[in-house]
């Protein structure tokens, strides 16, 4: 497929608001779902846990459309600022990503992807993504029916199919059957069951599983794409980053102890996987946590001071300045926006 044809296929998602911005998407009514908070964005998806950290200034408003089947969940979504996200799916699900914006610089598990590549994340540690100007498709599939479909094609038992992280290149799909099917499935014809959410017909779901199995089988037989260092780096980053859930400002020594590595190795792993050093990650993580709490509040302005102290800031002015440098507004402005919503 030529670059022009690929652009045309990508644009199929734009008329409903995926690439047009949240104001127009909001005007689309039930065709799109617009979420300010990540917990609302991931609600209903097969994820055990998920947390995000905003890495650059901007309004992290999530615009999405979701299709739900029994064994497949497909979501087309758009979000502008650069985000680092770590998610862990439920044990019986795997996740595939396809980026469609060449400017997104989308990285998953430390590997930069090309537009239209399908990247499978099936590991027990979940996946870590980063990127900006995201215009992506995310596909969640139950492992059991996926293994059965692969086994049927290979003539083996489902227990002999070992789903693992891999990459499905566009060149492996010369007629773009799988990618066309995904894009078409992301433009449902049925009525929305709730804003931005649609049922996936059983026939569409079966076709997607069959097409995915045909693409996955050769990739699963080849060697894993990730290097041993990258796998170790992902585990180091996950272990160190987990501290920010209970301690808003862990020290480098505490992060090293949690990950079992030296400061030099910790720094190398964070830069390799996330592109930023650990101390910058900690700062951005607590600011992102602050925004989530402000957006979830009832608009009480006294929360700003309480929140700044709970996140380790001794001076409210410094907290406000750092918050403004990332989100483009003061914490009090975020609170007032909740009162006006």
SSE blueprint:
Layout: H1 3-11, H2 22-27, E1 33-35, H3 38-41, E2 47-54, E3 62-68, E4 72-79, E5 83-89, E6 93-99, E7 107-108, E8 111-112, E9 118-121, E10 127-131, E11 134-142, H4 143-154, E12 166-168, H5 177-185, E13 197-199, H6 202-221, H7 228-241, H8 252-259, H9 263-274, H10 278-295, H11 303-310, H12 316-327, H13 331-340
Parallel strand pairs: 3-13
Antiparallel strand pairs: 1-3, 2-5, 3-4, 4-11, 5-10, 6-9, 6-11, 7-8, 7-10, 9-12
* CATH homologous superfamily designation of the largest domain: Jelly Rolls
CATH topology grouping of the largest domain: Jelly Rolls
Radius of gyration: 21 Å
Assembly classification: single chain
Beta content comes to: 15-25%
Query: What is the structural class?
Result: alpha+beta
Order of helices and strands: HHEHEEEEEEEEEEHEHEHHHHHHHH
Corresponding CATH architecture of the largest domain: Sandwich
Given the structure, what is the number of helices?
A: 13
Domain unit count: 2
By DSSP, the count of extended strands is: 13
Largest sheet at a glance? 8 strands, mixed
Low-confidence stretches: 14-29
**Mass-distribution shape:** globular
